[in-house]
Structures are given as C-alpha cells and as structure tokens.
C-alpha cells in the first residue's frame, strides 16, 4: 500500500495505520469489572439499602492513626416490623375499628324490610293526634317550619278595624269605611288635607276648598269635591270614581285599575298624570252631558336620530 491515499479511501487508510495499545484494553476491562464487583456486593450485603452504625456519632472524630486492618462488610439490617395502626384525625378509633363499624352499619341497612322488626308498636291510645289530652304532657316542642308559618299566616282571619272619620291637626282621616253612602266633610279650610284609606263601596263628599286629597288602597269608592288647590292622588286603588264640581289643577293616578274622572267646566285644563295604571277614562262636559275619553295605557318609543320620542300607541277599536 502506498504512503499516499486518495481522498476517497483516506478514512480506511487512517484506520489501517492505527495501532491498538494493550494497556488501554486492560484499563477498560478493569474499570468494567469494578461495577460488576459492586453489583455483586450490593446484592449480598445491602439488599434492603445501606445501613449505618448508630453507635458512631456524627460529631465523633475519626482517627487517622487507626490500623488499617481487613475490612469486613457490616451485617444486613433487621427486617422492618409491622407498621403502627393508623388513626383518624377526628376519631380516636383505629381504621380497623372504623371499618368494622361501617361494615355493621351497612349490614343493618341491607336488611331491607327486616329492619323494621326492631321497632316498637305504638297503640292508638298513645298517639297524640288521636288523644288531645296527651299533647300537654311534656311532649317535645318542635319549632314550626317555614311552610307551617306561611300556612298559618294565610289562614289567619283578617283583622278588622273600626271606621274612622276625624280631623287630626290639619289632616282629615277617613279610614276603613265599607258600604257607607253618606259620608260628608263640610267644615274645611284651605290648609287642610284629606287622607282616605281602605274604604270600600263608600261615597264621600268634601265641601269647600281644600289643599289636597289622597286616595290609598280604596275599592269602589266614589269621591265628590268642590275645589282643590294642590293635587288629587289615587294610589293602589281599584274601580274608583272622582267628580270635580269646582276646579283642580292636577290629578295623579298610580298603580290603579279602573279610574273614572268627571271634570267640570272650570277644570277642563286639569293635567292627568298616570303610571302603572289601567282602565282610566276622563269624562268631559259636552252638551249637558259627559263625553268619555280613554287615557292611553300603551306607548310607542322611537329614535329620531338625536333623542327618543315617545307617543301614545293607537287605540284599537
């Protein structure tokens, strides 16, 4: 073989000219034998892991002058004992006792119909719902549930109040009248107000000039008055009729179903303000009689490009 190799066969030429040193081979074999010896040593003396001499303290100094005798491997550690019984955090019983209690409980539940055999029979003379005399003999008192409380409230009779018609300071109080058709308030002043509350099927006439009138929670009430300098308010009422003999600037109707307002000639310019109400009608004098006009209940709102425009919806005939 020539000393110069072509570029194609140059790696082969380098491998052919390399000489293997025997010392390197011996060193690798010795290194591998170390791991084999360590593996055999661990399998023989340390099958459960390494163990340390408990008599030798960590702080005890090691003597360098100690004779280096033949090293003997330490004996293997004793086998581990049985684990201690585990306890529950919230119970002082071991897990074995808890499992036994649960097994007993499940065994009782799995009896099915046999579980009722241990119950004591109660005769009819021992039942409180059949013997009212037993109810007051130290029976446990149970607080009524929410459903019982609600049921008792619904079934409780409505408390009745005595009718009232009196002047309290500057306030006329007309309350709890029912089926009365001749109530009249005649001695009025400009600074007085009238408050009419929970009157049913009643007619009331207020003579003279008064500051304001309030109708609250009234049903089928008829109100006739002369003049009001402030406002007439109708709140939470049903089927009421109001007749103006003189003049009133404003009538407000809120949360009312069924309200008929009869205006006089001098109160044509009265403003009607309504909210959350239905069946509202304004009757205006016309040729010696009254002409009825309904107050809109539905409204239509639209956007005109800059603001919202609300107008009454067309009434269906």
From TrEMBL:
Where would I find the C-CAP/cofactor C-like domain in this sequence?
157-295
Spans annotated as Disordered: 53-97, 116-161
Pro residues: which segments have biased composition? 70-86
A Pfam family annotated for this chain is: CAP_N
Give the GO terms filed under biological process for this record: actin filament organization; cAMP-mediated signaling; cell morphogenesis
Q: Which Gene3D superfamilies match?
A: 2.160.20.70, Adenylate cyclase-associated CAP, N-terminal domain
Q: Which InterPro entries match?
A: Adenylate_cyclase-assoc_CAP, Adenylate_cyclase-assoc_CAP_C, C-CAP_CF_C-like, CAP/MinC_C, CAP_C_sf, CAP_CS_C, CAP_N, CAP_N_sf
Amino acid composition bias (Basic and acidic residues), ranges on this chain? 57-66, 116-128
A GO molecular-function descriptor: actin binding
Name the GO cellular-component terms. Answer: cytoplasm
Tell me which PANTHER family the record gives: ADENYLYL CYCLASE-ASSOCIATED PROTEIN (PTHR10652), ADENYLYL CYCLASE-ASSOCIATED PROTEIN 2 (PTHR10652:SF2)
By sequence similarity, the record places it as follows: Belongs to the CAP family.
Name the chain's protein.
C-CAP/cofactor C-like domain-containing protein
Organism of origin is Eleutherodactylus coqui
